[in-house]
Specification:
42% helix, two-stranded parallel ribbon, 10 helices, Rossmann fold, six-stranded parallel beta sheet, alpha/beta
Length: 310
């Protein structure tokens, strides 16, 4: 599919990932007048009529809007997280179908996988076990949208693609939350600035995660719009595990902090989370291009510029 000939709707275009997707579309040579990206205050995706008018005329819909946050937000507002994510996706898929859109790409989450699933997590194992309790409302809302995608393809041949996205990081991420990488960067930079002798980190440092640089994630989304022709769930990840201890040591090295890192617990939450990326390679030709150290350096640089003393 040649994106240059299509009208493309991007929801959540004012968010962290959305801004990078809009930039990637422009880098592809898509004219501004072919990209629709309404602001949050202009369109409430929980409302059927708003979904109807923004979907009208769009050939491709990249649905990036969502309600999520750090662990504290997930603890405080699980009903909002579940309802808003489910209703936005459900109504927008139906509006897209009615409007005759050719393709719909939506963002899921690695949190959809249960710790009971074998590692590395494969798409065919998405329904093994129950997701981690604190993220279950978000994860299950996203999984239900993948069922809608398959149902709509079976009945209408309407093509919706579910991208199961691992942890995204990179320049422009909101630093107001306690999501891991921004929280780590803030902690290390503050320790450097204050000449602190020790940084305390929760857990034991042994838990591992799979992170993807935001520009790589944006590229994967565009590849799905261009190449995918079935309603598959597709893991989008780097395919590389890195431990909390390794991440902390890298951040320490990058900012030249000479103090000690002290882990405060014998546990570290879900012990491992890494995604199998075979399907993304075969269906999309996707391979993450940014190694973690390079991406972390760029993220720290961006943080330092945005939060430099005025």
């Amino acid at each position: 599919m040649n994106l240059k000939t299509k009208k493309i709707l991007v929801t959540g275009g004012d968010g962290f990932l959305g801004k990078h997707v809009l930039a990637a579309l422009k880098n592809r040579g898509i004219p501004d007048n072919q990209i629709i990206s309404p602001k949050r205050e202009e369109c409430d995706l929980r409302k059927e009529k708003d979904c109807g008018w923004i979907a009208r005329g769009a050939d491709i819909i990249l649905h990036l809007a969502g309600v999520t946050g750090d662990a504290e937000f997930h603890k405080k507002e699980p009903s909002r997280i579940y309802f808003d994510n489910l209703i936005m996706g459900t109504r927008l898929i139906e509006a897209a179908r009615q409007a005759g859109a050719q393709k719909f790409v939506m963002i899921g989450s690695a949190a959809e996988y249960s710790e009971e699933a074998p590692l590395p997590f494969r798409e065919e194992d998405l329904w093994i076990g129950y997701p981690e309790e604190k993220h279950a409302p978000y994860a299950i809302a996203k999984k239900l949208l993948s069922i809608q995608a398959r149902a709509y393809y079976a009945q209408y041949k309407f093509l919706a693609i579910h991208l199961v996205m691992t942890n995204i990081y990179g320049p422009g991420e909101s630093l107001a939350s306690n999501v891991f990488i921004p929280a780590l960067i803030k902690k290390v930079l503050e320790a450097k600035k204050n000449s602190s002798p020790v940084i305390e980190m929760y857990g034991n440092g042994e838990a591992t995660r799979d992170f993807i640089y935001v520009k790589d994630a944006a590229e994967a989304i565009l590849l799905a719009a261009e190449k995918c022709e079935s309603p598959d769930s597709i893991n989008i990840a780097s395919g590389q595990e890195i431990s909390v201890r390794e991440m902390t040591d890298l951040a320490k090295k990058i900012v030249n902090f000479e103090g000690e890192i002290k882990f405060t617990s014998n546990t570290g939450g879900l012990s491992r989370r890494v995604l199998d990326i075979t399907r993304a390679r075969s269906l999309l030709g996707f391979e993450a291009q940014t190694d973690f150290e390079t991406g972390l350096r760029e993220t720290i640089k961006d943080f330092s510029v945005r939060h430099a003393p005025r």
